[in-house]
Amino acid sequence: MEVVGAAETEIRALKPCLLRRNHSREQHGVAASCLEELKSKACDILAIDKSLAPITLVLAEDGTIVDDDDYFLCLPSNTKFVALASNEKWAYNNSDGGTAWISQESFDVDETDSGSGLRWKNAARQLKEDLSSIVLLSEEDLQMLIDAPCADLAQELGQSRATVQGLQNTLQQVLDQREEARQSKQLLELYLQALEKEGSILSKQQESQTGCDQTDAVDLGGYREGSSEAALRSRLLTVLQEKPAPELSLSSQDLEWVAKEDPGALAAALSWDVEKTVTAQQACHRELSLRLQQVQSLRSLRSLSARRSSRPGARQEPKRARRDPP
């Protein structure tokens, strides 16, 4: 019974592995109980010349040299090895799938995907050595670690899935904070640009307003320069420019000033052509004439009423309050 138990223990100790030569896609399945046995079988199966011994076994995933028997026993089953002769050096091959926890579909991925897988594993090892290196990882590396399968990342870091899930959530928060900081910076830059543009526009408007006031003081018709007259003139120009029917918004005195003003000077002040300026002056003149007619009509009515009330023999009785019937 003890002999059988020892045989079973020896059988269980055999570790299935995958072997291939460097720059070759052909793989061979081998079972070995120790590192030396695996090297011996590699020479026989891969037909490596004895003159090229001793051979070196490296991990097909990243070229790690496996020269310790205890480390070999810690590797998972179906780990891929590359057998290197004494004159060979390991070279990365995109057909390398890594160890047993990578599914068979990964053998068919293209070079970009394989390189990406190797990159997130390197980032994971960096985190394993120093967790504070999160702040040094690029956003691309953070995104790859977030997108990495939780089980694979847990095995790479030697942690439980729950711990790795919490780590991925933390990485997502770091990535979100970087994105928020970038967006805040962009908004601040846009705000500063808007402020600068608005300040430039206001400065130009003030310069333009100052130029208009100076033009009004020089060109528009012999008025004394003064702040009140300049403000009045500026208001008239604003009404003429902005109102669809400015003659209805001006007083009679303003209408008279507009109607009598020189068309060329007024056109220059309004930045209009002379034809449009003359049309506006005619509209102001018509409105002024209409108002004068209304005033004359009111005066005539008042005069007629006064003559009737002062007619001889006209009896004016005092007005009495009307009594309401009981």
From TrEMBL:
Residues 164-198 form a coiled coil. It is found in: Cytoplasm. Residues 13-92 form the CIDE-N domain. PROSITE patterns: CIDE_N (PS51135). Keywords: Acetylation, Apoptosis, Coiled coil, Cytoplasm, Phosphoprotein. The keyword Hydrolase does not apply. GO terms for cellular component: chromatin; cytoplasm. One of its GO terms (biological process) is apoptotic DNA fragmentation. Pfam families: CIDE-N, DFF-C. GO terms for molecular function: deoxyribonuclease inhibitor activity. The keyword Phosphoprotein applies. Residues 301-326 are annotated as: Disordered. Its main location: cytoplasm. Residues 314-326 have a biased composition (Basic and acidic residues). Inhibitor of the caspase-activated DNase (DFF40). Heterodimer of DFFA and DFFB. This is DNA fragmentation factor subunit alpha. It comes from Suricata suricatta.
